[in-house]
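Chapter summary example.
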Amino acid sequence: MREIVHIQAGQCGNQIGSKFWEVISDEHGIDPIGEYRGDSDLQLERISVYFSEANGNRYVPRAVLVDLEPGTMDSVRSGPFGQLFRPDNFVFGQSGAGNNWAKGHYTEGAELVENVVDVVRREVETCDCLQGFQLTHSLGGGTGSGMGTLLINKIREEYPDRIMVTFSVMPSPKVSDTVVEPYNATLSVHQLVENTDETFCIDNEALYDICFRTLKLTTPTYGDLNHLVSAAMSGITTCLRFPDN
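The structure predicted for these 245 residues follows.
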C-alpha cells in the first residue's frame, strides 16, 4: 500500500488538518475513537494510506501535529476527534514564534525540529511503501511558515525520493492578522519552490468570497473557511484513498 504521512504545523495548519481528519474519518466510517462504524468494504480497502491499524481494531491517523506553543494542541485534543490521534505524535514548544518567520526557522523552531523529525521517522517505519508527505500550514504566521519550511527541508534531506505536497494558506490584505504576513510569506515561498513537488495555494480572501456569494453566510468564521479547505483536500485525495473502479 502507498502510505502518506500527514504533518500539520502552526495554529492554522492544525485547525485545517484537524478538520481534514474529521472529514476523511467520516468518509471511511471511522468514529472519534478510531473504531470502524462504516457499511462498505470500499471504505476499508485503502484505509491504510492515511491510517495505521492499532490494537483492538482501532485506526490511528498517520499524522504528526506540531506547534511552538501548547494552546493549539490543547484545543485539538479537546476537539471532537482529539482522541483519534496518537498522543506521542503531538510535538510542541512553550514559547511560540510570535508571527516571526526567523523564530520558526532558525531559533525556537530549529530547537524543536529534531523531535518532530524523530516522530516522522517513527511514522515512516510503520509504512510498507511510503508514497510521500503532506503538510498543512499557513504562510502568514511564524510557526507554519518558518518551522513548516524548515521541516520540509529536513524531510527532503532524509527522504529525497518521496513526494512532498503542501496545502499552504496564503495571506491576503483583506483578511490579515498581522502586519508582517507578507514578509513571512515571501521568505516561505522560496523554500516551497525549492523543496516541494506540489503546493496547493489556499487564499483566505477567495474562501470568504465563496462564503458570502455562494453559501450566503453573513459572518463567516474560520471554522467555515476550514470546512471549505477540508472539502477541497478530501476531493484532491479521494483517488488516493479509494479504489479507482
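To summarize the output: Residues 222-241 form the longest helix (20 residues).
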